[in-house]
Amino acid sequence: MNETSSANGEEPPSGSSLNALKEFKSAGRGFWSDVSDADWNNWRWQLKHRITSLEQLQRLMPSLTPEEYAGTKLANTKLALAITPCFFNLIDPADENCPIRRQVIPRVEETHTAPWEMSDPCGEDSHSPVPGLVHRYPDRVLFLVTDRCAAYCRYCTRSRLVSNATGYDFHPEFDRQIQYIIEHPEVRDVLLSGGDPLLFSDEKLEYLLNRLRGIKHVEFLRIGTRIPVFLPQRITPELCAMLKQFHPLFISIHSNHPRELTTEVRDALARLADAGIPLGNQSVLLKHVNDDVTVMKALVQKLLMCRVKPYYIYQCDLISGSAHLRASVRKGLEIMEGLRGHTTGYAVPQYVIDAPGGGGKVPVNPNYVLSRNADRVVIRNFEGKVFEYVEAANTSPRYKASEDFVVPELV
Ligand SMILES: *Cc1c(COP(=O)(O)O)cnc(C)c1O
After folding, report:
1. What pLDDT was estimated at residue 397?
2. Among 22, 51, 193, 330, whose CB has the most other CB atoms within 10 angstroms?
3. Is any atom of ligand 1 closer than 6 Å to the C-beta of 135?
4. Catalytic residue among 86, 98, 122, 156
5. Which stretches of 221-324 are DSSP H helices?
6. Distance CA 57, CA 51 (A)
């Protein structure tokens, strides 16, 4: 058993488990001890040797559970199975509830779809003016560049198109996407995602970034990627030197559990940070993975050590077949409550629900404002102590008395 997991409510977390979770360890060689350093450290070798079939998985992990066996058998009809060797090494084969394992090994529950689950939970397709471009917010667009990732997260919000297992046949046409941005001067921020943009060759990515940089009203570029975690070997000095030409360029990585932050990942993140790229992290709240205050605290503190600012914690989208991975909003709020004030402000991400059907990201916060009217605000702090703040005088009140609200329950 994973000593730090308290997903089943046992063992109150202790300081020592926090520190154990924060240790940086190498992913090691695991089953690939006879592979040369040159191969192991080569991202193309890692990609070529991904675990993509039930046979490979069974060979490497004889302890596959019946749920995993059945799920993997069906996986390639929904979302492909792919795990890089370096990420696979983080799995604890002795722990059925291993937080790494649950993220990447299919389970039969993925084939169960509840009526409220969707193939496009964030309503992206309905906000796509041209294929592969999502224009949901006034001043920024999501630019999907590929349907491929280094490894596939079982809860992927874009599993309808990613890996092409469902025959979505995603073929973005960069010219059309770029033309749309050129014709929309309100777009000042372009977020490249997919699929994973860092799977492209340096040349292809450079071409795309160059074209976007050539658009005068595009002020800000960002890349959303899980490659630093799934495939840290990809973060070569050459890639970093190339990316550096396109500042301001931010990168959002995706990590969910502190064990994912290995020494190799830490070093890859250092190369990106040294190239002047501000780094953020996005986590998805997942049952048996990170639905635990100690695990989340270890993750966010470890991210700061890697110069990564925890940016968002997402409530898991209502993607088809994800019920077994979704933790409750109640749990998410409890985690936020356990972070704010208890640790560095920089370490505290914003918890959001991407509103089902296409409402966009909505912040969800524990209630710290107990009541508020035109004269005063009653607040509580992270320790539960209550304070009163006398409202600033305002001759033209921004809200009328009828809009006053009282939050009834004290958390
Ligand atoms: C998340 C997202 C963005 C970026 O949102 P930020 O809050 O600015 O990080 C942009 N477009 C779409 C469609 C998104 O889902």
Report:
1. 54
2. 51
3. no
4. 156
5. 227-230, 237-243, 263-274, 293-305
6. 6
Q: What type of residue is 151?
A: A
- Say what the pTM is: 0.92
Contact in structure between 236 and 264 (CB atoms under 8 Å): no
Residues 114-134 have pLDDT tens digits of 999 999 999 999 999 999 999
Domains and CATH numbers, the chain: 1-366 (3.20.20.70), 368-411 (no CATH)
Mean pLDDT of 317-340: 97
% helix, strand, coil for the chain, step of 5: 35, 20, 45
With a 6 Å cutoff on the Cβ, whether 142 touches ligand 1 is: yes
pLDDT of residue 401: 53
Distance CA 170, CA 190 (A): 19
Indicate which residue's Cα is closest to atom 11 of ligand 1. 142
Confidence band, pLDDT 50/70/90 cuts, at residue 403: low
Token readout for 175 is 């010219």
Place of tokens 């991400």: 349
251 CA distance to ligand 1 middle (Å):
13
Q: CA nearest 17: which of 351, 304, 296?
A: 296
CA-atom Rg of the chain in angstroms = 22
Q: How far apart (Å, rounded) are the C-alpha atoms in residues 103 and 88?
A: 11
Buried/exposed code over 157-190 (b: 16+ C-beta within 10 A; e: otherwise): bbbbbbbebeebebebeeeebbebbbebeebbbb
Ligand 1 touching residue 98 (CB < 6 A):
no
Strands 189-193 and 133-137: unpaired
How many angstroms does the Cα of residue 319 sit away from the middle of ligand 1?
Answer: 18
> Are residues 325 and 286 in contact, defined by beta-carbon separation less than 8 angstroms?
yes
* Nearest-CA residue for atom 5 of ligand 1: 361
Residue with tokens 């193939």: 119
Listed range (160-164, 171-175, 189-193) with the worst mean pLDDT: 160-164
Which pair of structure tokens corresponds to residue 32?
Answer: 């690939």
pLDDT at 393: 82
**Cβ pair 264, 232 in contact under 8 A:** yes
pLDDT at 5: 45
DSSP states of 148-216 as a string?
Answer: --SS--TT-TTTTTGGGTT-------HHHHHHHHHT-TT--EEEEESS-GGGS-HHHHHHHHHHHHTST
Instruction: Please indicate whether residue 307 is annotated as part of the active site.
Output: no
Would you say the CB of residue 137 lies under 6 angstroms from ligand 1? yes
